TrEMBL record:
GO terms for biological process: diadenosine tetraphosphate biosynthetic process; glycyl-tRNA aminoacylation. This is Glycine--tRNA ligase. It is found in: Cytoplasm. Belongs to the class-II aminoacyl-tRNA synthetase family. The gene is glyQS. ATP binds at residues 230-232, 240-245, 312-313, 363-366. It comes from Hymenobacter busanensis. Its EC number is 6.1.1.14. The keyword Nucleotide-binding applies. One of its GO terms (molecular function) is bis(5'-nucleosyl)-tetraphosphatase (asymmetrical) activity. Keywords: Aminoacyl-tRNA synthetase, ATP-binding, Cytoplasm, Ligase, Nucleotide-binding, Protein biosynthesis. It catalyses: tRNA(Gly) + glycine + ATP = glycyl-tRNA(Gly) + AMP + diphosphate. The keyword Protein biosynthesis applies.
Amino acid sequence: MSNPAQKTAANTAENTLADIVSHAKEYGFVFPSSEIYDGLAAVYDYGPNGVELKNNLKQLWWKAMTQLNQNVVGIDAAIFMHPLTWKASGHVDGFSDPLIDNLDSKKRYRADVLIEEKAAEYENAGDKPRADALLAEMGRLLTAEDLAGVKQLILDEKILCPISKTANWTDVRQFNLMFSTQVGAVAGDSSQIYLRPETAQGIFVNFLNVQKSARQKVPFGIAQIGKAFRNEIVARQFIFRMREFEQMEMQFFVRPGTEGEWYEHWKATRRRWHEVMGLPAEKLRFHDHDKLAHYAKAAVDIEYEFPFGFKEIEGIHSRSDFDLTQHQTLSRKKQQYFDNDVNPETGKPYGNYVPYVVETSVGADRLFLATLCQAYQEETITEGEQTKTRKFLKLHPAVAPVKAAIFPLVKKDGLPDKANEIYNALRHDFRLVVEEKDSIGTRYTRQDLIGTPFCIAVDHQTLEDDTVTVRHRDSREQTRMPISELRGYIGEAVSLSRIFEQL
Ligand code: ATP
């Protein structure tokens, strides 16, 4: 039976996500794709503020990888790859989710998600052992590919379709998540190619090209940001689960036997990165995988507490030499590295080997959603006699779409010209806007809603002494300062080195 207190908590969470979704649309962060045609399920477009925020997040990841580590270099591989790539990686045969349909509602579900939701119900009701036992049983059945057993588990647990409220289920079957298309003009099996379901394989097949051209020695990493495509069965929760999304992945190639320490290194480094970027420690947690892929030595998710619960934003996986060995077999091209460092045990070089890989993989869109959820604030403020709710985005200045907005107090007396003069002096350094329209209060509100950290008011005193008032988004406090100090002041707040020195 559902617990009323829990229901309220769930409703509040949904309301918060609904608020964020509508905020994202209204203020130009995220739009449903092809909205004039009623949208396309699980596909979204980023608007003018969204693209700035997303680019800033991607830049911070990219620089944290390739600028802070001499032994991490980037690539930008094509989305289309030779079809054998996906045979080698196991995606053709194994990249599928267990699917189940309800015959009454005609709705399709992921069988594992239905069971996970049941386990979450047990856990929320305080019965963690039962939740854990259920998840372990599901893991066992999926590993054994016992799909009939998975269906039986759904029936035994009396899991009902949320729409029809019946247990009239089809059998469970596997559904491959890769999108395929034809290359060239001639149709047929040989021309079938896939839209990549992960960016990692573009890195694996370029391992030797990069190692040689960038003169890297193991251990070293290759970073990439790019689109990936998955025909997700159930796409929900806004940009959390999309059919076209963006990944930021880094494959770190190590000497076999050292993968354990590198796994711990990247696990800690990546979690710290999220904290420094503004996701609070108490809203992040590690979640070890219950079920490991057959090639994996260890795998952990970094989860963030979204309004709909703790969910994965990044995966850190110790992948052994599986991918490179598979590519070596199918391509018949050696994927070996000659390590001339001396092994202290033998006194001889380590010699030839296929490196092991530790990967970090974060979704740019999930990171964007976590950032937006974290930044979204509603506070009650008192202005004179009036009490009102103020909404604002408490974004780190370094990722905010606009760094400062410049407001001439009135549209006359030369103030707009002065505002534009300041804009022209600073636009090479920062993304700024000049706004003349509406009352200053309305203009502050507009900038709060998109997370602009500073608003610069140009008034009559400015014409006399070249000073302006800088209003701070979070505290709403105002500071008077000379125009000549603005560059240093904003620069300090948006400085990447201030972020990176905390890593
Ligand atoms: P999930 O279990 O949520 O489906 P996953 O374990 O399949 O995710 P990975 O294959 O490890 O995900 O992909 C790495 C990262 O890519 C994830 O941590 C996530 O941030 C992102 N990602 C994966 N699938 C999607 C998707 N459909 N939409 C948006 N981001 C995604």
